[in-house]
Design goal:
The complex is a heterodimer of chains A (about 350) and B (about 300).
Chain A: H1 7-15, H2 33-63, H3 69-74, H4 81-90, H5 97-109, H6 123-158, H7 163-176, H8 180-194, H9 214-252, H10 255-262, H11 267-304, H12 310-319, H13 323-351
Chain B: H1 2-31, H2 34-56, H3 90-125, H4 129-143, H5 146-156, H6 161-172, H7 174-188, H8 191-198, H9 203-239, H10 250-259, H11 268-296
Helix pairs in contact in B: 2-3, 2-11, 3-4, 3-6, 3-7, 3-9, 3-11, 4-7, 5-6, 6-9, 7-9, 9-10, 9-11, 10-11
Classes of the chains: A mainly alpha (about 350), B mainly alpha (about 300).
Chain lengths: ~350, ~300
């Protein structure tokens, strides 16, 4: 499902690098549609099974949290046994576990993920409320770090071994080793709170200052978006860079590049038209897997910057623990990864005809 | 009699000799990777700091009751990194915290790689339904978002170091399992495995004598890489307040700093040292892992 899970996908491009021209210059692809459809059906079934497994896991995993949710709901206030019983009935906690489970599954299939203990609102509403904010943050960061990683990775590989490459790789590895939340906190101190002569340039958290409309509102949100996006890009671009770099290095010795050069093409053209399109193929898988992972990995950045998204919600829900909300969010995070992996699997044979059949 | 002892002793000596030669060759290759050497040096330094911490700072550095300084002092000659909100010496805390962070990183990585290697070797050796089922489970773990699962496990269990180690170990093994299985399949397709089977070697003999020694180098490189993931994960979990609150670790220090309001009051000197320590150690393990990987598998194209 990921790169390791499907060795065929990984080995594909390296298997016969000799006979490949540039992807753009190929004629109509000889491909049997039925074979591809069978492949799609297989992948979709696998994804559906995975999603079901996640649904089951998220139910049972969080039932193991010690402590009584009712106690958290009442906040330690002295309450009568009748009130506790009423709470239990309200959230279905008085039923036997198997019945809770079948209720949960039945409702989940119709899109009802239960009611949050904390907010007294349907989990689905809370999630759909926070989802656009998370998508805005991760989407912006994703586009930027993928572009940056691919660009720098390509340059690095093309001039590999030189000073620029070593600085590039070194910086990427260093940023990759930095905890994202720490970088976020530092950025807040330096650029929001201000150190010494540096004034606070950016807001410390949240998504908007409030009371703004129209274009001013867009600018305001963009202003709040800068620091979280910078944090995410800094810690995430390294992986894309390294994968792009090693994929391109694999292609560098190929005969078709020598041919291209022998034809008298400029170095720049050889890189952009011939080498990069082939080298990007293994990167595509990573890009999709990364997008899914970023949605899940955004928990820390959202917590640090108090961004009103899914990650911040997950953190809040965990501290209660707000079981239905935690379950729902866990499902969303896992589903994001599964859906993206499946998309990568489906797209790959279309991009690289050497793979799959 | 003498001939018999000669034939049993000689292969042993030969094996030892070969192993020594292989180690020397490995070191000669490794030495050419400058980044790997830098990582190794940093690791030795941090290991020394962590091991000598009881002598240099002592365990009373984490005591809240008789702290030496005033709360939240800026760095000075007496307290080179300042003090925390209880007046404890931050330099001492960072040094003391290295013990927990390194220990958790090592143990979690060992646990993760042990699970991964066990599953990988058995799934590669025993084919059939066992391999199918176990690889399905691995695939399923592989698609789970690691951090979310680790957070969930750490929430579910009690707050302790063991919990953190378990949560990290249990969520990071699938990549190792995949790698080890692929390597096992490659080893088992070689003719000498067939010879061993023909001579009556059982499952245990083949796995322990032929597969495991061949898989070990890969496992070693993987362990080094996973340690850096584990150290970052430990810091993350501690920062989210899921660690043992009574134990000083780098991630815990960062959480303390945030709770003490170091961010809003601009006390950067409180936040910087633990984060740098985490970054250096994680980077050092990554550099070592990459160097080991490229020595063992030059085709990977990892630059020096």
């Amino acid at each position: 499902m990921t790169a390791e899970a499907t060795p065929a996908l990984v080995e594909g491009p390296a298997a016969d690098p000799g006979d490949t021209g540039s992807a753009a210059g190929r004629g109509p692809r000889a491909r049997t549609t039925t074979a591809y459809l069978r492949y799609v059906a297989g992948k979709l079934t696998g994804a559906a099974v995975s999603l079901l497994a996640v649904l089951v896991t998220s139910f049972f995993l969080f039932r193991l949290i010690p402590g009584d949710p009712v106690k958290f709901m009442t906040g330690g206030r002295p309450v009568s046994a009748q009130q506790i019983a009423a709470y239990r009935r309200e959230f279905g906690l008085d039923l036997p576990l198997w019945q809770q489970f079948t209720d949960y599954c039945g409702k989940a299939l119709t899109g009802d993920l239960g009611t949050s203990y904390q907010f007294r609102a349907p989990v689905l509403d809370k999630i759909t409320e926070a989802l656009p904010n998370t998508l805005l943050l991760t989407g912006t960061a994703f586009v930027l770090y993928t572009a940056l990683g691919v660009y720098l990775g390509t340059r690095s590989a093309w001039r590999h071994g030189r000073l620029g490459d070593r600085l590039n790789t070194g910086l990427a590895l260093t940023l990759y080793s930095i905890p994202s939340f720490w970088l976020g906190l530092l950025l807040i101190i330096v650029l929001s709170v201000g150190v010494g002569p540096v004034p606070g340039l950016f807001p410390t958290g949240g998504m908007e200052s409030g009371g703004k409309e129209g274009f001013a509102y867009v600018l305001d949100v963009a202003h709040h978006l800068v620091l979280p996006v910078v944090t995410l890009v800094a810690v995430e671009y390294g992986q894309t860079l390294l994968v792009t770099r090693s994929a391109l290095l694999d292609e560098m010795g190929s005969d078709y590049l020598t041919t291209a050069r022998a034809k008298g093409l400029r170095d720049d053209l050889v890189r952009r038209r011939h080498a990069v399109p082939n080298a990007l193929l293994p990167t595509v898988t990573l890009v999709f897997v990364n997008l899914g992972r970023t949605v899940a990995g955004v928990i820390l950045v959202e917590t640090v910057f108090s961004w009103p998204g899914l990650g911040g919600l997950f953190y809040q829900a965990l501290s209660v623990p707000d079981l239905p909300l935690v379950q729902g969010l866990f499902f969303v995070f896992a589903a994001a990864v599964i859906v993206m992996n499946t998309l990568a699997d489906l797209l790959y044979p279309l991009l690289d005809p050497r793979v799959g059949r | 009699m003498t001939a018999e002892t000669a034939t049993t002793a000689a292969p042993r000596a030969l094996a030892r000799q070969r192993r020594r030669a292989a180690t020397a060759r490995f070191w000669r290759e490794y030495r050419t990777h400058r980044a790997g050497l830098f990582g190794l040096a940093a690791l030795v330094l941090f290991a020394l700091v962590a091991l000598t911490a009881p002598l240099t700072v002592g365990s009373d550095v984490q005591s809240v009751t008789d702290a030496p300084g005033k709360p939240l002092e800026s760095p000075s000659l007496h307290f080179p990194l300042g003090t925390d909100q209880f007046g404890r010496n931050l330099l001492g805390l960072v040094v003391w915290g290295s013990r927990v962070s390194l220990l958790v990183g090592l143990l979690a990585a060992v646990l993760s790689v042990a699970i991964g290697a066990l599953i990988g070797v058995t799934a590669g050796h025993f084919r059939g339904w066992y391999a199918t089922v176990i690889m399905r489970i691995t695939d399923w773990f592989l698609v789970m978002p690691t951090l979310v699962l680790a957070i969930a496990l750490a929430t579910v269990m009690s707050r302790s170091l063991g919990t953190i180690i378990l949560a990290i170990g249990v969520t990071t093994w699938p990549t190792t399992a995949r790698l080890v299985r692929a390597q096992t399949l490659a080893v088992e397709s070689r003719p000498y495995i067939e010879r061993a089977k023909a001579l009556g070697g059982g499952h245990w003999h083949i796995m322990s004598r032929h597969v495991v020694p061949n898989v070990m180098p890969l496992v070693l490189a993987q362990t080094t890489l996973i340690i850096s993931t584990a150290i970052l994960a430990e810091a993350t979990l501690a920062f989210l307040g899921l660690g043992d609150p009574t134990i000083v670790s780098w991630g815990g220090l960062l959480q303390d700093a945030r709770e003490a309001g170091a961010v809003s009051s601009g006390d950067w000197w409180y936040l910087v040292p633990p984060g740098i320590a985490i970054a250096i150690v994680a980077l050092a393990f990554t550099l070592c892992g990459r160097a080991v990987e490229s020595v063992l598998n030059p085709r990977l194209g990892v630059s020096r």
